[in-house]
Amino acid sequence: MYRFLLSRQWVTLTLVALLLVPTMIALGIWQMNRYEERSARNQLVTDALAADPVPVERLAAPGHAVTRAERYRTVTATGRFDTDAEVVVRRRTNADEEIGFHVMTPFVLDDGKVLLVNRGWIPADGPSQTEFPKIPAPPRGETTITGRLMPDETTEASGIKDLEGLPDRQIMLIDSEREAERLDADVLGGYVAQTGPEPASGLPQQLGNPGKENAALNYAYAVQWWLFAAAVPVGWVVLARREARERTADAGRDTDTAESDAARTESAAV
């Protein structure tokens, strides 16, 4: 009854099913790994945001690369803003997806070291973004700021190309080593996204809390792939049994037809 499984059509279908099952299982495992990676990153963000503020010198130093565990940690710093060395970071968007600049202002600490501070987003003065925008001044004199510690920006992590030949006082990426050369100073590694004090004018718009990755979606995809993998052999069995029933029914009808024909032939002969 199941000799049809040896036909070319069914051999091909069986081979495809045998390939699909391990492929779908592997895809489910990959999605589960992505779920675990994203969940771990989300937990790091949660832990960093919940940690008590610490002086920035405890986590950052010249030449130090901000680690994953240090990223988003709330830090404090006391010093003064050096607006003469202020630059803007091109092609940045705000919460409404408007294109403008991030304002990067060196912050000179009491010991003379420099902390790079991303004060937030401002709109561009024109569509070309070639002119240096008007930037509200930060507090004068000695002040204490708070913010989230961030690693140096790279093209690999951000997807932003580091273009050359930019207008004066404009950069594409915040790079502490490059800024140390420009400023001829000891610059702490990474930078701080300022969260306080808030500017009186509302500009620059300080950056909001970092968003979390949708790890639950990867979990759902993993379960989905494994359900598909389980459905393939079930579907193969259902199709095979249905075809077997159909072939048996066809064979029965052929037998009945042959017997009827033989009976009519015998009756006619009599």
Automatic annotation (TrEMBL):
Q: Where is this region: Disordered?
A: 245-270
Q: Which residues cross the membrane?
A: 219-239
Mainly localized where? membrane
What is the protein's given name?
Answer: SURF1-like protein
Instruction: Report the superkingdom from the record.
Output: Bacteria
Q: Name one Pfam family in it.
A: SURF1
UniProt membrane topology term: Multi-pass membrane protein
Query: Which family, according to the similarity comment?
Result: Belongs to the SURF1 family.
